[in-house]
Description:
The complex is a heterodimer.
Chain A: H1 3-33, E1 36-37, E2 44-45, H2 53-62, H3 67-74, H4 76-109, H5 115-123, H6 130-141, H7 146-154, H8 167-191, H9 195-203, H10 208-219, H11 221-236, H12 240-245, H13 253-263, H14 267-299
Antiparallel strand pairs in A: 1-2
Chain B: E1 25-34, E2 37-47, E3 52-56, H1 63-71, E4 78-83, E5 86-87, E6 98-101, H2 113-123, H3 128-141, H4 157-169, E7 175-179, H5 187-204, E8 207-212, H6 215-221, E9 224-229, E10 232-237, H7 239-244, H8 249-254, E11 259-268, E12 272-276, E13 284-287, E14 297-302, E15 308-310, E16 319-330, E17 334-341, E18 346-352, E19 367-372, E20 378-381
Parallel strand pairs in B: 3-8, 3-9, 6-7, 7-8
Antiparallel strand pairs in B: 1-2, 1-4, 4-5, 9-10, 11-12, 11-14, 12-13, 14-20, 15-19, 16-17, 16-19, 17-18
Helix pairs in contact in B: 2-3, 2-4, 3-4
Amino acid sequence: MDRKSGRFLLIGIPYLWLGLLFLVPFFIVLKISLSDIAVAIPPYTPTFDLGAGWSGFIQFLSGLDFENYIWLIEDDLYINSYLSSLKIAFFSTLFALLVGYPIAYAMAKAPSEWRPTLLMLIILPFWTSFLIRVYAWIGILKPEGFLNQFLMMLGIIDEPLQIINTDTAVYIGIVYSYLPFMVLPLYSALEKLDGALLEAAEDLGCTAIQAFWKVTFPLSMPGIVAGCFLVFIPAIGEFVIPDLLGGSDTIMIGKTLWADFFSNRDWPLASAVAVVLLLLLIVPIVLFQRQQERAQEAEK
Amino acid sequence: MNISPNKKPSARFAPWEDPAQKPLVRFGNVTKRFGSFTAIDNISLDIYEREFFALLGPSGCGKTTMMRMLAGFEKPSEGTISLGGEDIADIPPYKRPVNMMFQSYALFPHMTVEANIAFGLKQDKWPKQQISERVEEMLSLVQLTKFAKRKPHQLSGGQRQRVALARSLAKKPKLLLLDEPLGALDKKLREKTQFELMDIQEKLGMTFVIVTHDQEEAMTVASRIAVMDDGKLIQVATPEVIYEYPNCRYVADFIGDVNLVEGRISSKTEEMVKLAWAEGQGDIDISNKNGCAAGENACLAIRPEKVHVTREEPQDVDNKIRGVIHDIAYIGNLSTYYVKLGNGQIFRAQESNRRRLANREFTWDDQVWLSWRNTAGVLLQK
């Protein structure tokens, strides 16, 4: 085999992977989203019939329409779901940043022999199933759970707080679950920071706090951006956390999609919801990639 | 920038010899400990205004700690450090009229060259107009006007070095600290930059303290050198004195090449000391500048370039020894001859190669004479 075809083979592997496991399923979902609901197996129409030849194909195409997308715009539920998801994802990201930055900062400033252990502690929760960890929060947050018992024991509150089944519980769940994705890029940005830069800032007239805002913070920006996207993007489509911890009035697009798909068996509409969600996420993903490229360029 | 190596002012400029002069910086019995490790051991030192003072020593000798105490990043464990008569031990770095040029340059990577230089001025709340004038002035001083809008990663090593210098000079500090400022540059650029540094220091009339492990660099730039070892000052003097009259073996050996001849003082007169150094060899005459007594053990330190190599027995010289050429190190402009003496000791002599290599007078295993004047060496006590 000559070098050129060898190289194509090598590049071909990820493309083949993406094509088979992302692009093909995506087009199937796209096709379903353009179909109509039907009481059949599969529960939509038209289906593609290879045996019908060219006229069958024309008939198949004419059966597709944008009805489901129009429905998404007309029904408030969907718009509200998207907006509510964006809101919950945005504030969760903000809280995760506020909680994650001090953690990452402390880790980066810790003596170097402690750092691998601290890093391990951040990664350790991944060893337990995500689902089990979210269930554990029910035990902590429910009215007779650990948190309420603890606060009542201390005498801070007289009767249990209603945290579970509210948006607060969803925020707690998302911040907890995605915190490592915030901490790790922040830590890697802060750890690279040359201590001499802070000394230089102090030497030139900054107090330690001023030096933080003028040097540390701007230089950790790539980590902040990366961490925020890594939390924001999966948080938008989150289903498990709002389903287990949120209440009936917590609406997120993941929950709406699940209801359409499993409860209403409206595959076409659910597919349309998924396609729109994907389009919404492409914007931050592209922004994220451009930022990563810029960060890489700056490092050269 | 002009390269003018012989305009060093040290011949006229010598405030340390004038007892009426007040030092700008005074270390008074300063000791610095890190845990059980003593980095600085009871050092007292005066540095005068407009000096270009070099702290020279091997790594770990404490020279960087001295500098960091001046910048305010370390506090002395004992003793006082004063700047312009004022004790600065408790003044934090951001309030000291001292700036530092870092070894790694520590340029802010997210700011342009301009913003880096303006950083300290903005911090001191200078008016906008004055800041831009000062930045302009600094850029032209270090010849980087064209690069004002670049980020540090778009500059070469030498350019970054100059930005770092401009940034540390911008606030007109009373004292500028330079931590191995040329360490990251290649040899040619380093030599050029040494002269630029001297020019700038002279032009601005500021006090510079430089930390270096490179003895040539210290010799070139400094008005005075403090040779340090193991947290102590070994000798503080002008480069000429350090080189010609080292006060101990450590300094003689650290600065340049030296031949050390161990012996015992056999006799001593007003002007002359005789050193008995080997059985069956004549005593070495050394003009007496040290307070050694007859009968003491002592050591002659003599630089290889002060020793002549000749084939014929030289006449009218103060000292001569016979030997055999053991090895020759040819480095282009100079050749160092490693001559084996009768007692097996290797003695180095350096001759400049005025002739082409092919016409060289001596070769391996030739019998030669080494000779030198009695003022050429220094007698060092144990």
